């Protein structure tokens, strides 16, 4: 008995102290019922989302998103929604990037569907689907019949357009569980990212949201690779509903048009090289522009340009040519200069080439070489591309589709300040996701 008692005392003295359990944070409103403080329009007009009658009202136009002003990792989110017409479409994005992905009006995220309607083929429903979009990944709790990364609900509980529905969305450690009107019906796990912004989506029709509240749960330490892209200060310079912020010349009317999330040029404004200019002038900046050439390509010959900016020669000393699929020509004018223009085209040298500087024989060889793309990073004709153009002083860096093709190239004599222009050569082109960050 003495031995047992001694053992008990030793066990008592050496037992580890239990770590305190972190309690969830209290519930907080995600919408104050009066205005949109705490929310940031990403690629939509200022009137797309508004506060009215203790609701967030989405017109659905243009297609795009509004996000929270901070990231969230583990949390429970509750909200009510209703569509105002049958077949209405909207959405709730979880763990989103700060801006939209290339060539689409939405961000990389996990979407919790908010739609009125069902696919006759059974691939999607209006009752609480959850799925990955634009580079995000997740594992559905139940396999999708088509093999998609999409969780279909176990039960159809959503009420039709005009009636309110309640969502309870629990997001923890990369897993999401959705309860529709009081019962869990769908879920995913192993999501990447698993920390990011919360977004409301506009997609063509009026939708109302109310009673948005959130309860944050303890962090489980999402890594940088598991965290969405953070806000870097980029602001949209295209509303998606009109040409506000752009100088629309008389010959541009009806040719440069706002077509939802796409700024469209139909190729028919007559005069070339005039450009559609911003009303605002900029000094140093980073500019994001998505673009695509929608024309059907035609085959023609084009000259080959060497990395030093010189034209390649064949064995006879003549300019070397190759056959290309040509879908058109455009570019981005920087600080009001038609010479400082990274090209958009199908040439072998690749888009981003600052041709006027490359061809200026009065410039030093190193300057001409620096404005020649290091590699051709263009997507095939008809696909979306993304420029990230950074201009500091007279130094240009340009990233095309994630590849740095121009780095710290000098543009001698470029104005210190000026507007940004979208060039036209009489070829159709589409622009989207135009964002700028002033440096």
Number of strands: 31
Determine the N-to-C terminus distance. 78 Å
Helix content: under 10%
> What fraction strand?
35-45%
Any idea what the CATH superfamily of the largest domain is called?
Exo-inulinase, domain 1
* Morphology: elongated
Note the quaternary state here. single chain
Radius of gyration: 27 Å
Structural class: mainly beta
CATH class type of the largest domain: Mainly Beta
Helix count?
A: 3
| CATH A-level architecture of the largest domain | Sandwich
- By CATH, the topology of the largest domain is Jelly Rolls
Average pLDDT value? 94
**Sequence stretches where pLDDT stays below 50 over 5 or more residues:** 1-16
Number of discrete domains? 2
Main sheet: strands, sense, barrel: 9 strands, antiparallel
Describe the structure.
The longest helix has 13 residues, at 2-14. The strands form five sheets. Strands 1, 3, 4, 6, 10, 12, 13, 14 and 16 form a nine-stranded antiparallel sheet that branches. The chain folds into two domains: 28-229, Sandwich (Jelly Rolls), CATH 2.60.120; 246-438, Jelly Rolls, CATH 2.60.120. The protein is 5% helix and 38% strand. Strand 19 (256-259) and strand 20 form a beta hairpin. The chain is elongated, with a radius of gyration of 27 Å. It has 439 residues and is mostly beta strands.
């Amino acid at each position: 008995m003495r031995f047992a008692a001694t053992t008990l005392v030793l066990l008592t003295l050496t037992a580890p102290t239990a770590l305190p359990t972190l309690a969830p944070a209290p519930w907080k409103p995600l919408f104050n019922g009066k205005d949109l403080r705490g929310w940031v329009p990403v690629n939509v007009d200022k009137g797309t989302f508004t506060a009215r009658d203790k609701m967030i009202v989405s017109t659905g136009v243009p297609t795009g998103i509004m996000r929270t002003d901070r990231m969230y990792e583990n949390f429970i989110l509750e909200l009510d929604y209703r569509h105002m017409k049958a077949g209405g479409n909207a959405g709730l994005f979880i763990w989103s990037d700060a801006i939209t992905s290339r060539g689409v009006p939405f961000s990389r995220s996990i979407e919790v569907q908010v739609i009125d309607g069902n696919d006759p083929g059974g691939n999607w429903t209006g009752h609480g689907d959850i799925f990955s979009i634009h580079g995000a990944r997740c594992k559905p709790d139940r396999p999708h019949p088509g093999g998609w990364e999409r969780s279909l609900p176990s039960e159809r509980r959503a009420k039709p357009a005009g009636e309110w529905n309640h969502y309870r969305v629990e997001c923890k450690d990369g897993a999401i569980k959705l309860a529709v009107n009081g019962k869990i019906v769908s879920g995913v796990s192993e999501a990447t990212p698993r920390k990011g912004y919360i977004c409301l989506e506009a997609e063509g029709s009026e939708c109302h949201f109310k009673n948005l509240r959130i309860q944050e749960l303890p962090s489980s330490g999402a890594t940088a690779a598991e965290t969405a892209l953070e806000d870097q200060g980029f602001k949209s310079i295209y509303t998606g509903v009109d040409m506000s912020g752009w100088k629309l010349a008389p010959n541009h009317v009806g040719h440069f048009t706002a077509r939802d999330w796409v700024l469209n040029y139909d190729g028919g404004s007559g005069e070339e090289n005039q450009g559609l200019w911003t009303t605002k002038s900029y000094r140093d900046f980073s500019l994001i522009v998505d673009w695509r050439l929608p024309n059907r390509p035609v085959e023609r010959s084009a000259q080959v340009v060497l990395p030093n900016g010189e034209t390649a020669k064949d064995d006879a000393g003549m300019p070397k040519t190759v056959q290309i699929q040509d879908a058109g020509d455009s570019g981005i004018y920087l600080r009001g200069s038609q010479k400082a223009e990274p090209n958009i085209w199908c040439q072998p040298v690749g888009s981003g080439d600052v041709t006027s500087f490359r061809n200026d024989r009065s410039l030093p060889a190193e300057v001409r070489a620096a404005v020649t793309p290091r590699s051709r990073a263009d997507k095939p004709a008809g696909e979306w591309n993304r420029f990230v153009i950074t201009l500091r002083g007279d130094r240009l860096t340009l990233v095309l589709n994630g590849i740095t093709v121009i780095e710290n190239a000098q543009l001698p004599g470029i104005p210190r300040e000026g507007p940004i222009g979208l060039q036209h050569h009489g070829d159709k082109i589409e622009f989207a996701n135009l964002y700028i960050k002033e440096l």
